[in-house]
Specification:
about 270 residues; mainly alpha; Arc Repressor Mutant, subunit A; GntR family transcriptional regulator; WH_DNA-bd_sf; Tscrpt_reg_HTH_GntR; transcription regulation
Length: about 270
């Protein structure tokens, strides 16, 4: 046995350097998506600086970054605040999402491709639903008899992806919180767009995801629909993609997002 075989070289792991601005911004974003920072709550630069032990200029830069993402709002000479999204905001966000996601589904259906990443995300949606007894945030009912049927994913059976994905929920709010379904739900839809491989489409879609997630978190306590119904409809989209049924996939998506939008709008108007 050679010395190299006895003492293999250590694995070099690549680390991403995170600036103080990014670190503060990332944690503030996490707190918003976890429901810890609620709509209307003020974020004062001095308070943020003290909480994180950073300079006021760093706190200001982090707040400005989140403002640019649409996750905070700020008027002249006033502190930033977590926005209270309106029904009109939700309608516009979901209308734009539908257009972008429909385009992605047509390309995927042409290739008969149901992305594995989307199936794995949906397994986490189901796991989150099981943890809270099926309580949900916003979605639509699946087609009758669709529950429990796993679609083919990228040419293989989905059972492996579903079982693997269900082992860990790991979402904001904890596995026992209704908020836990929000992150994998959004991840499912993002995975469909990312599977196209268009950086420009991803950027356009990414600008909507934060606001949509923030909205869902703000109304999560209303438990608008059962998470398992959301997951059923996700599975139906994947089945139609694998079958090459572009019109069918878009039809399911349209019902899915339209009903979600309507229920979120109604909750915000209540």
């Amino acid at each position: 046995m050679t010395s190299t075989e006895a003492n293999p070289p250590p694995v070099v792991r690549e680390l991403r350097t995170v600036s103080a601005v990014d670190a503060v911004g990332d944690d503030l974003r996490r707190r918003m998506f976890a429901g810890e920072l609620v709509g209307g709550e003020l974020l004062k630069e001095a308070v943020v600086a003290a909480e994180y032990g950073v300079s006021r200029s760093t706190a200001k830069a982090a707040i400005e970054k989140l403002t640019a993402e649409g996750l905070l709002e700020r008027s002249a000479n006033r502190s930033a605040r977590v926005p209270r999204l309106t029904a009109a905001d939700v309608h516009d966000i979901y209308r734009t999402r539908l257009r972008l996601e429909s385009s992605a589904l047509r390309e995927l259906a042409a290739a008969r491709r149901a992305p594995r990443e989307a199936a794995e995300a949906n397994a986490r949606v189901r796991a989150a639903g099981a943890a809270v007894g099926g309580a949900g945030v916003a979605g639509t009912a699946g087609e009758p008899g669709s529950a429990g049927r796993a679609p083919s994913v990228d040419g293989e059976g989905a059972s492996g992806a579903v079982v693997g994905g269900a082992r860990a929920v790991g979402t904001a709010g904890g596995p026992g919180s209704a908020i836990a379904s929000v992150e994998p739900d959004m991840r499912f839809h993002a995975a469909l767009v990312e599977a196209i491989g268009s950086e420009r489409l991803e950027r356009m879609y990414g600008s909507l995801v934060g606001e949509a997630r923030l909205c869902m978190v703000q109304v999560q306590g209303r438990s608008l629909l059962a998470v398992d119904r959301i997951a059923d409809e996700h599975d139906e989209i994947l089945r139609r993609l694998a079958a090459g049924d572009a019109d069918g996939a878009v039809e399911v998506l349209t019902v899915h997002l339209t009903r979600a939008s309507e229920r979120l709008e109604a909750a915000l108007d209540a």
